[in-house]
Amino acid sequence: MSVFKRLFLIFGPVVCAAIIVLGFLFSPFRPDKISQSTIQKAALSQSPQVFKGMAVKRAAFRENYVPFFGSSELSRIDALHPSVLAQKYHRSYRPFLLGTAGTQSITQFWQMQGFGNELNNKKAVFIVSPQWFVKGGIDAAAFNYFYPRPEIVSWLLKAKPTTENRYAAERLLALNPKDSTDEIDDSVLRIAAGQRLTNFQKTYLHLVKNELDHEDQLFSTISLNNREALIKKREKELPKDYNEAKLDKIGYELGKANTTNNSLDIDNNFWKHKLKPVYKKLAGEQKNFSYIKSVEYSDFQLVLNEFAKHHINVLFIIPPINEKWANYTGLSMSMIQDFNNKITYQLKSQGFTHIANLTNDGTKPYFMQDTIHLGWRGWLAVDQYVNPFLTKKQTKPQYKMNNYFYTKKWQNLDY
Amino acid sequence: MINMQPYQNPTYFMLIALTLLPIVIANLYEKKIYWYQTLISFGFLLLSFGGIKWHQGIALIVYVIFEIFLIKLYFNYRAKSNNSWIFYLTVFVAIIPLIIVKVTPAIYGGQVSIIGFLGISYITFKIVGMIMEIRDGAIKEFRLGQTIQFLLFFPTISSGPIDRYRRFVGDYNNQLSRKKYLDLLEKGVWYIFLGFLYKFFIAYFFGTLLMPQVAQNALARGGISWWLVAYMYVYSMDLFFDFAGYSLFAVGTSYIMGIVTPMNFNRPFAAANIKEFWNRWHMSLSFWFRDYIYMRLVFFIMKNKLIKSRITIANLGYLTLFLIMGFWHGITWYYIVYGLFHACAIIVCDAWLRFKKKHRQQIPSNRFTKAFAIFLTFNTVCFSFLIFSGFLNTMMFHHIMK
């Protein structure tokens, strides 16, 4: 066999593979415009590739989709969930669910970098979980699960060494300690150190962004969670016309029917799979929990800064905790009140005035679907704030951002 | 400056492909370009030990100077005389840096020693092997340049496979025929692509996608649960495919450079007993321990007639070997228990093999017993990896904190 034939046999497949991959990633051909049905599917899916992605979100926000930022409560899709209500009663908006178990302020801040200007001067809903505000903020593993590489690159291309950008870069370095560094990591280091990027870095980042955008367009809509059938099923549980009292009764009945295997008003499935094996260990366990001193307050400030930058009018929702559960685990309600005051101060003093504070509703039966997640009647209560906020004209917010909220002093302030 | 760890991302592989191209062409013309090989080795070392890891780079340079000085010193001594105590002392001095690196985290609560660097164990193994072979008289000449090439061979520097000096130098100086080189090249490329499958698909699936969820569930349940069993298997699969994938990259890259670095794995989960397992798992390490610790200890005991029973000698050898291996992995209870577990397993295995030999007539041997043996060995090994993973330790602390 000649040398060339052997070389061809050895490297032929390698060259083919390289051409296919590179062609895929760098070719000028882009998939068609993202279809309505894909957007709808993505809006309900809570899939990490949508959350981390850019193309679908931007397409959705050009339409009538409103971002619902949150975490695990968003996946409690019962009949009164915002997505079901919006569809059933033909609201002028549709929720785009952004967040799932494990997402917190800092993850939200990063995924927001993928928005572009589609949300400028529009509205959003943000569900703040008190449970995020533990001492160290987000768990590093949870953060890295949503590691926002494309967003970091977009952000770097615009980032000046301001207080908020330096804070964001420092948090990134702390949450994702690197074993090795590429140009992206080196650029983050420069921002954290208060320096500007070099021209080489900018050129390199532009190239990387091109490739990542393409990757996002190609792959971010593949194998999404399909929740459309579930939403349709839930719609059937609702009456034809919207009537709050009637819906509240339905919420009560649904709640009662689904919480039969425990005495804490917790959804049967959640109890059976998540709590039953461990609940004995959890008695009195949260006695010393505190959500007052936390780095999360500054992470949250990053999100607020982002809202202010894009002039987005936001409704914040602070959900309660199932009171029966709180009593069982010993969680202090006065601490929750302190948390409320602290977060409310951070919001109001900077001009974020739309706050739906539900923390006193944890006593109402079937307000929560389980321990800390809104459900049936809780979702309906949320709708009393969401619907008017999104469907009626609101005055333009005036934000006065304050870098004090990035300080250790604020993070550790007793309230 | 940027820093890249070996075989970590596509960029690293593209760099390898580009920089090895001249070596491939030269070899096809049956030529060696030593200066170029040295140059790119230096470049890759700089990439892995520069940037944020510069302090490791300094540690590596100081370490190599120190060790080479020691080898040279012993080589000169050995040319004149051969005192056993001087030999023991030399080996001990050679492993002092490794001992410091391994002991520091145990004393200072996980803190990493400043004299440590990625791959210090593997270089130390190579050095100790060299010293022992100098004592045996097997290494007859000391060449500084080739010793440095051997110790700092970049494809295997971070995690092996552990090569032997004489074998390496033989390959390094030998010019392959075009046909022989083409065979090597073909295997090298194939190994690297098999490595992609192992490390970036299978190990990713087990380690990155499955493991965190299984771990979380096992921690939530606490104690012995089905999730813990699942963790045991998932961890074992991740460990094998990750390390075997890495080893394939190292071997493949070596082959392309014309160096036949020894293989590290040979279908270890097909082993029918623990002894066979160690002939198939992390082979370059287990053969190193066999040749330089087990054999030498057994030989020493027999020569000095310390113990009569051959069985006792063998068992003592296993115990020593696996205890040292346990301590080498790190000074924590679970690595040491892992070592003891394997020592016991192999002692039991030996006893069983002797029993089987004596009662050959009564004990059936067929396809089913063979399948059962593989099944039993696989599960024993997976259990040992559960100990090794340190997950039981995490679980205990998790429980105490609750």
TrEMBL record, chain B:
Segments crossing the lipid bilayer: 12-29, 34-52, 58-75, 87-108, 114-134, 188-206, 243-261, 311-329, 335-353, 373-392
A molecular-function term among this protein's GO annotations: acyltransferase activity
InterPro entries referenced in this protein's UniProt entry, alphabetically: Ac/AlaTfrase_AlgI/DltB (IPR024194), DltB (IPR024024), MB_O-acyltransferase (IPR051085), MBOAT_fam (IPR004299)
Keyword Iron: no
A single GO cellular-component term on record: plasma membrane
Main location: membrane
Membrane topology field: Multi-pass membrane protein
GO BP terms, alphabetized: lipoteichoic acid biosynthetic process
Enzyme class, UniProt record, top EC level: transferase
Record localization: Cell membrane
Pathway(s) per entry: Cell wall biogenesis; lipoteichoic acid biosynthesis
The family this protein is said to belong to: Belongs to the membrane-bound acyltransferase family.
Entry-linked PANTHER family: ACYLTRANSFERASE, TEICHOIC ACID D-ALANYLTRANSFERASE
Function text: O-acyltransferase that catalyzes D-alanylation of both teichoic acid and lipoteichoic acid (LTA). D-alanylation of LTA plays an important role in modulating the properties of the cell wall in Gram-positive bacteria, influencing the net charge of the cell wall. Catalyzes D-alanylation from DltC carrier protein.
Protein known as: Teichoic acid D-alanyltransferase
Native source species: Liquorilactobacillus mali KCTC 3596 = DSM 20444
